[in-house]
UniProtKB/TrEMBL annotation:
<keyword id="KW-0999">Mitochondrion inner membrane</keyword>
<feature type="transmembrane region" description="Helical">
    <location>
        <begin position="72"/>
        <end position="93"/>
    </location>
</feature>
<dbReference type="InterPro" id="IPR018108">
    <property type="entry name" value="MCP_transmembrane"/>
</dbReference>
<feature type="transmembrane region" description="Helical">
    <location>
        <begin position="33"/>
        <end position="51"/>
    </location>
</feature>
<dbReference type="GO" id="GO:0022857">
    <property type="term" value="F:transmembrane transporter activity"/>
</dbReference>
<keyword id="KW-0472">Membrane</keyword>
<keyword id="KW-0812">Transmembrane</keyword>
<protein>
    <recommendedName>
        <fullName>Solute carrier family 25 member 48</fullName>
    </recommendedName>
</protein>
<keyword id="KW-0496">Mitochondrion</keyword>
<feature type="repeat" description="Solcar">
    <location>
        <begin position="1"/>
        <end position="57"/>
    </location>
</feature>
<keyword id="KW-0677">Repeat</keyword>
<dbReference type="Pfam" id="PF00153">
    <property type="entry name" value="Mito_carr"/>
</dbReference>
<dbReference type="InterPro" id="IPR023395">
    <property type="entry name" value="MCP_dom_sf"/>
</dbReference>
<keyword id="KW-1133">Transmembrane helix</keyword>
<keyword id="KW-0813">Transport</keyword>
<feature type="repeat" description="Solcar">
    <location>
        <begin position="70"/>
        <end position="178"/>
    </location>
</feature>
<feature type="repeat" description="Solcar">
    <location>
        <begin position="187"/>
        <end position="274"/>
    </location>
</feature>
């Protein structure tokens, strides 16, 4: 996904996959995975915890009942708060992941025009293997840019995640309400899985344009900063590659969003149910 959004030399998703395998073998598909895998549990706990807590606070303040169902506007507010808070953890994680993923080798042979390159000529990232792992990557960013450097692209991420989480939690909640059978207080596990998957596909699909901008800003700045900010990145990308650049990876985002979100929402609901001591499973 990152390669598609940032590099200019890929004609399609298949061509991207083919090129990565040809020049980097299978290991190329797993670059930058260790840090997200290490932090994913904490990140998802933060996201779902903030959303649940915000819902409870709104219900207590508006209705004096923490279990009261929220309106569409109230759900949107809770989702927006979640999106804003999530950037505190998500921005550094994504930055490290993208910096590691963009260490391609050998680029001159692959003949790809990366962001920061000269049109029509392949360029190599400086020190193709600048970082051996996430720790070294973090240390390098901190030495070069300080703590604020870990939040490069955070503004674009806020613009992605606030509407993105609104289109994540609101559709999920509404779909669960629609899928709940008459006479049942909660949807079945299958309904939760389906609603979560659909919400994930909607959210990731619509978030793709700003995801492209965020990825480009975070991949930029290894040697020099090409983009001065979010608006400059949008303008430059549009001028050089057209409107279609903002939809790179949209299909991949939507497809991966379904199983990933379906599993997360199902795990979330089952965990809540276990913590509440509700042992009886609803009928499938």
């Amino acid at each position: 996904q990152t390669r598609l959004q940032v590099a200019k030399g890929y004609r399609s998703t298949f061509h991207c996959v083919q090129t990565i395998y040809r020049y980097e073998n299978v290991t190329g598909f797993f670059k930058g995975m260790s840090f997200p895998l290490f932090s994913i549990a904490f990140y998802n706990s933060l996201v779902f915890g903030v959303f649940n807590s915000t819902q409870r606070h709104i219900s207590q303040y508006r209705y004096e009942d923490v279990g009261h169902a929220l309106s569409l506007l109230e759900l949107t507010v809770a989702s927006a708060v979640t999106g804003f808070v999530s950037v505190g953890i998500g921005a550094p994680v994504d930055l490290v992941k993208i910096r590691l993923q963009m260490q391609m080798q050998p680029l001159s042979t692959a003949n790809l025009n990366l962001v920061g390159g000269v049109a029509g000529r392949a360029v190599d990232l400086p020190n193709q293997r600048a970082f051996r792992g996430p720790i070294q990557c973090i240390i390098g960013i901190l030495r070069q840019n300080g703590l604020l450097g870990m939040y490069r692209g955070a503004r674009a991420m806020i613009l992605r995640d606030i509407p993105g989480y609104c289109l994540y939690f609101v559709p999920y909640t509404q779909l669960c309400r629609w899928f709940t059978k008459e006479g049942h207080s909660a949807p079945s596990p299958f309904a939760v899985w389906l609603a979560g998957g659909m919400a994930g596909a909607i959210s990731w699909g619509t978030a793709t344009p700003m995801d492209v901008v965020k990825s480009r800003l975070q991949a930029d700045g290894v040697q020099q900063n090409k983009y001065r900010g979010v608006l400059h990145c949008i303008y430059h990308s549009y001028q050089t590659e057209g409107i279609k650049v903002f939809f790179r990876g949209v299909t991949l985002n939507a497809v991966r969003g379904f199983p990933m979100s379906a599993a997360m929402f199902l795990g979330y609901e089952l965990s809540l149910k276990a913590m509440r001591g509700q042992r009886r499973e609803p009928e499938l």
